[in-house]
């Protein structure tokens, strides 16, 4: 197909963006500690990201649908990422870091969702698995977690901005070569967003999955601290991230063919069950190596859950509002869930320890999975055709 070469820039965009994302997710707390912030202050900075995402993701998604382009919204956001990251890394006082951090996350938080939205649409157009595209993001995450970790260990955490800008510039270059989406001719109006607000199955689904996505975001934030509580070090934390993301990449690469045989909601529910088992096993751990050994479950949980949930959401929302709907899903998955996870998770692990935290996560995942089973059962009863 003539459009097929356009997948290479898209894969490279996902690779380079998720490489930058690794640097922030894995090393920003250490950088802020180097800047002199205490644990509570670091928690506030980390909470700014999900807060900005709740505003930024629906806004940029709507702008993408309104102007019928993903490519140029991505260009604006990546240019904003580069400029705001330079400012963000120059700040020293807590207030300045918080304000610069909000602007920084306002531009960075939609990029992953927009890239995935474009990937989902290109995969549908070419009749291929979205996972074969999205796996390149996981590869970028995994490679960056190893390479940048070694670089910062040798050079010092204060030089974190340089690899970040390197991958950011790479993302900007490949975005110019992207093939944009083909969309309907009619322009999107603000009143069209009411179609999403009135879409009860869509809103119920987002609410129910939040019981599960919150646990994922909490673990992202505190698994490193839990490994250290169990006697591990930064090296083991890096290995744990690598194992988890490597398993995720494998799932993204091969999961697409499974969706052809079963309803995607079945996979969401399956992943929810595995999430619950995973967190209860983590809660029972008494050795950091036990956590690392179980990190392969990251692929069976996040990998399957994210692919299946995004596929299901794509079927629930009108084609005219694909970017808005995708980024609203992203705002729930990574925004609202991230705020709840950061605030509650921090309080739980500080007061009761990591074991109790992961036990609570297991209960929350089980509740979310039960709600999804009820939701799926009611859908099957009220209509016979699949969504």
From TrEMBL:
Keyword Nucleus: no
Membrane-crossing residue ranges in chain numbering: 12-30, 42-60, 72-89, 95-115, 136-155, 161-179, 200-216, 236-255, 262-282, 288-307, 327-349, 355-375
Topology relative to the membrane: Multi-pass membrane protein
GO molecular-function term, one example from the UniProt record: lactose:proton symporter activity
Keyword Isomerase among record annotations: no
Compartment list: Cell inner membrane
Cellular-component GO terms for this entry: plasma membrane
Residue ranges constituting the Major facilitator superfamily (MFS) profile domain according to the UniProt record: 142-387
Keywords from the named record: Cell inner membrane, Cell membrane, Membrane, Transmembrane, Transmembrane helix, Transport
Main location per the UniProt record: membrane
Protein's UniProt name: MFS transporter, PPP family, 3-phenylpropionic acid transporter
């Amino acid at each position: 197909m003539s459009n097929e070469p356009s997948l290479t820039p898209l894969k490279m965009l996902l690779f380079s963006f998720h490489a930058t994302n690794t640097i922030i997710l894995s090393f920003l707390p250490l950088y802020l500690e180097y800047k002199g912030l205490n644990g509570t202050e670091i928690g506030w900075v980390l909470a700014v990201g999900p807060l900005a995402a709740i505003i930024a993701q629906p806004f940029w998604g709507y702008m993408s649908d309104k102007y019928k382009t993903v490519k140029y919204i991505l260009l604006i956001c990546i240019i904003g990422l580069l400029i705001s990251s330079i400012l963000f890394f120059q700040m020293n006082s807590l207030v300045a870091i918080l304000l610069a951090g909000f602007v920084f996350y306002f531009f960075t938080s939609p990029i992953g969702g927009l890239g995935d939205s474009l990937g989902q649409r290109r995969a549908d157009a070419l009749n291929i698995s979205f996972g074969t595209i999205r796996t390149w993001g996981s590869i970028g995450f995994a490679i960056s977690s190893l390479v940048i970790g070694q670089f910062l260990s040798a050079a010092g955490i204060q030089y974190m901005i340089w690899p970040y800008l390197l991958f950011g510039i790479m993302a900007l270059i490949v975005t110019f070569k992207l093939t944009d989406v083909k969309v309907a001719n009619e322009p999107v109006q603000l009143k069209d967003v009411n179609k999403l607000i009135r879409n009860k199955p869509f809103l119920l689904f987002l609410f129910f999955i939040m019981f599960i996505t919150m646990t994922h975001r909490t673990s992202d934030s505190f698994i490193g601290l839990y490994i250290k509580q169990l006697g591990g070090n930064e090296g083991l934390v890096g290995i744990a991230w690598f194992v988890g993301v490597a398993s995720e990449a494998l799932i993204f690469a091969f999961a697409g063919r499974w969706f052809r045989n079963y309803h995607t909601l079945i996979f969401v529910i399956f992943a929810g069950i595995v999430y619950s088992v995973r967190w209860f096993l983590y809660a029972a751990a008494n050795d950091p190596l036990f956590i690392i050994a179980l990190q392969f479950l990251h692929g069976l949980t996040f990998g399957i859950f994210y692919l299946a949930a995004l596929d299901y959401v794509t079927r629930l929302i009108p084609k005219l509002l694909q970017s808005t709907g995708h980024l609203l899903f992203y705002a729930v998955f990574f925004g609202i869930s991230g705020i709840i996870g950061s605030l509650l998770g921090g309080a739980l692990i500080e007061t009761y320890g990591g074991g109790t935290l992961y036990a609570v996560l297991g209960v929350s995942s089980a509740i979310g999975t039960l709600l999804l089973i009820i939701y799926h059962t009611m859908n099957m009863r009220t209509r016979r055709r699949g969504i």
